[in-house]
Design goal:
The structure is a homotetramer. By secondary structure, chain A is an alpha+beta fold. Chain A is built from five helices and five strands, in the order βααββββααα. The first copy, chain A, has a five-stranded antiparallel beta sheet.
Chain lengths: ~160, ~160, ~160, ~160
């Protein structure tokens, strides 16, 4: 469970709808910004992940709870963390906060599969994996890969 | 549990991203189209619900499972049904199917609160409620209110 | 100067802004739909132009006059024609009409350069060119290619 | 003719299309950001213009020349100035520059009519007008109002 990374955006007129609030589908764009900036904060440029390392973070699930409306010209604080990191799947959790009032406007999550350009699932390259993997995350990942390895690792695990 | 209403859309270039597929947030626009056409199929024009009846169907939750990519120029069949209807909350369920191949591309759901223009929750006007409420839905609705009140309501209800 | 091709779209909630009308930038999405359907009406699938024939119709200029607002749930008639066709550049002209009232809402134009996937200008393949080229258009194109042909055309031109 | 105001945005994944570049219609969103930040830089909050002063800056014309593609994750510098200010109409001119390379990617312009909430043209309130009007602009505006003033200005105009 990583810490939140934070970035802010200002609501664009384009993002509002005739209800006078941000259109619900646009929160998923804010989530995109949140995870890209999360990655950047950890030393990963998503653009390069695609171009240089053939690693696409494809969205498999997305969800949002819309608690209070965001409005035109509001500054939104997007708080993003990785809630689960495995070699082939990543989960991000988000909070959208009105940066002026501190009110929580929305929470959400996305689940991703790492794919190559052709859309085939693949493992995240080591250089990125190292940046994601906290000791706990690495443990979680083990379950996916090799049981024997998992077994030996388990016994050397420090209490958390 | 209502039946699926169906409508189709063709994927716009605007809706793709540089991965060569529909951007994940745009599925929520397809869901919007699905529920508006669902309502129209039942004799409700969402535009009039807002303008004439001060009833706004505000999104409280939204989620999507992205199973297979939709691509530029694909014709998508949007299948929409009401999965739960109460006086103050509505839930819609969606399926997005590639209309040519029949493949299921995405499933999703949205939860809505009926509000007035000021954003205050309100009950859905009778004229709409009658169109939503199948016998089963009406029963489900009973659970929300007070039992005694519900009881009296049931017995005074005119046959629809 | 080709004839207008026509297609209709219904305004989505997503496309409105808090002014209660369609956001001005979204007219360019309607123009996109207009020209794609124009092409389809002439036997060209833009998707295949990209995939099979490495011909991308890149936008070099775009403009719109916004005469009257389009509103949520309006059915818009998009009228599209090719105002100029040459081997390497295409120009489209558009009209957006409220399909119910007949009011003209917007007019616009886009200028395009034919490019390959790498973004290099190229000539439109013959198979497409034939579909664009009315006798007049073909003549116009001649000006780009061969002067002598242009010369003879001038003298055989019928008064317009 | 005012000076350029500048602001930057980072290209979102959402804004790209399958050509791997920013979708042409999205430049008009960048223009929106440019003019809102222009106004803010002059002490005007567009949100308040609408809410407190019933002044909506409605788009009447929009155009863009797309010179070079903007790409995902690029930082774009949006340069905005007022090219003409009158009491009832405003014109903005824009340049979009790749902030890293300095390349000019797009130029454009929008023409606006000041309207009230009902969509009726109105004069810009004094408090805003004062912020727009440089001596030259004020002179230009005079042309709309009084011919004699216009006449004298013409004769005192320096050669350009």
């Amino acid at each position: 469970m990583s810490e939140f990374s934070e970035t802010t955006v200002r609501v664009r007129y384009k993002e509002t709808d005739q209800m006078g609030v941000v259109y619900y589908g646009n929160y998923f764009t804010y989530f995109e910004i949140g995870r890209v900036e999360y990655l950047r904060g950890r030393g990963m440029t998503y653009k390069e992940m695609e171009l240089q390392d053939d690693s696409y973070i494809v969205v498999a699930e997305s969800r949002c709870r819309h608690l209070r409306p965001a409005r035109y010209d509001d500054i939104l604080r997007i708080r993003t963390r990785v809630s689960r990191a495995r070699r082939r799947t990543l989960e991000f959790a988000y909070e959208i906060v009105n940066d002026t009032t501190g009110e929580l406007l929305a929470t959400g999550a996305t689940v991703h599969v790492v794919c190559n350009k052709a859309g085939r699932p693949r493992a995240l390259p080591d250089k990125y994996w190292k940046l994601f993997a906290s000791p706990t995350d690495a443990d979680e990942d083990a379950g996916e890969a090799a049981h024997s390895k998992e077994h030996s690792r388990r016994h050397s695990r420090k209490p958390s």
